[in-house]
Structures are given as structure tokens and as C-alpha cells.
Design goal:
By secondary structure, the chain is an alpha/beta fold. The chain has 6 helices and 5 strands; from the N terminus they run αβααβαβαββα. InterPro entries: MUG/TDG, Uracil-DNA_glycosylase-like, Uracil-DNA_glycosylase-like_sf.
């Protein structure tokens, strides 16, 4: 179980990285914008209390129960993974430059071509638009593909994204899960 990082641990986490949770042939590779300091201090994706990724993942039907961030490696058993557009941790996503996001998009594309998940699910529409150069992209399935990998954009599950309710997030995750199951069963 996760423990709350200290002030010193949070400060030391600035510009740190978190290892990806990834393997070849995943059904869905979820991709955050970049890790926050809380996640960096714990070396766990979407670790900050109030981040709604883990509840949306469960309520959307991807996991049989609500997983905790410290159980992230167990996602691989479900053919799910996690990475980020930009690897370095920051206090806020707005600390990232557009150039950094575009470079992250190139690195992410190379990672997707290497690991070949069925779906890449970018969690954050603004980051997706900048990283891949699709300024009019909307949440949902994208026409853009990376090799054989289909792309889906989900809303940012940060607690700061008040536009999306927990139920709305869960519904978006569920749509992706349904599409993923259809593609797997073809």
C-alpha cells in the first residue's frame, strides 16, 4: 500500500522518471501526459489521491476490482500497460513546453511501434493535440493510427479536470473497453 511522500521526497522527485508498465502485445497501453511529483516520489503512475484514473479504469470495466497505484504491475496480467507522453515529473502539466510534448509524441510513436499494443489510449486531449499535431482532435477514437495500433483519446482523469465527472470518465473508459474487446475478438 502506498505511503504519503514527504516534502523532501516530493522536492527530490522533480524531473525524475517512472518506469513504464509495458510489455509486447498489450490490448491497451494507457498514456498519461507526464507524471506528477507525487507519482514520481512513489514511482507509481497516477498515484496522487484524487486522481480518478484507477476508479475510471475499474468502473469502465478494465479491472475486476479497484486497483491501487502500487498494484500497477498487475495490469500486465490483464494485457494493460501505462506510459507517458513526457517521462519527466513536474508539479503541473503546464510546466511542459509544446516542443517537449511534440518530442514526447515522437518517442511515444517509436515505443508503440516497438511494443505494438492493439490500442494506445492517450489520457488528455490537449496533450494529444500538441504531441501529434491534431489541433481539432476530440475525445474518442481517432482516425490516426500508429502502425497497426488504433488510437483513442480519453479525458484527463486529474481531479483538477472538473469538467469530467467520475461517471463521465467511466463511460469514456467503457467505450474504449468495448472497442478493445471487439478488436481482440476479430
Amino acid at each position: 500500500m502506498s505511503t504519503r511522500p514527504t516534502k523532501d521526497q516530493l522536492a527530490a522527485a522533480h524531473n525524475a522518471t517512472i518506469p513504464d508498465v509495458i510489455a509486447p502485445g498489450l490490448d491497451v497501453l494507457f498514456c498519461g501526459i507526464n507524471p506528477g511529483l507525487y507519482s514520481g516520489a512513489l514511482k507509481q503512475h497516477f498515484a496522487r489521491p484524487g486522481n480518478r484514473f484507477w476508479p475510471a479504469l475499474h468502473e469502465g470495466g478494465f479491472t475486476p476490482r479497484l486497483y491501487r497505484p502500487d498494484e500497477q504491475e498487475q495490469l500486465l496480467d490483464l494485457k494493460l500497460g501505462i506510459t507517458n507522453v513526457v517521462a519527466r515529473t513536474t508539479a503541473r502539466a503546464d510546466e511542459l513546453t509544446d516542443d517537449e510534448l511534440r518530442e514526447g509524441g515522437k518517442l511515444l510513436e517509436a515505443k508503440v511501434l516497438e511494443y505494438q499494443p492493439r490500442w494506445l489510449a492517450v489520457v488528455g486531449i490537449t496533450a494529444y493535440r500538441t504531441a501529434f499535431g491534431f489541433p481539432k482532435a476530440r475525445v474518442g477514437r481517432q482516425e490516426h493510427r500508429i502502425g497497426d495500433t488504433c488510437v483513442w483519446v480519453l479525458p484527463n482523469p486529474s481531479g483538477l479536470n472538473a469538467h469530467w465527472t467520475p461517471a463521465g470518465l467511466a463511460a469514456e473508459f467503457a467505450e474504449l473497453r468495448t472497442a478493445s474487446e471487439r478488436r481482440r475478438n476479430r
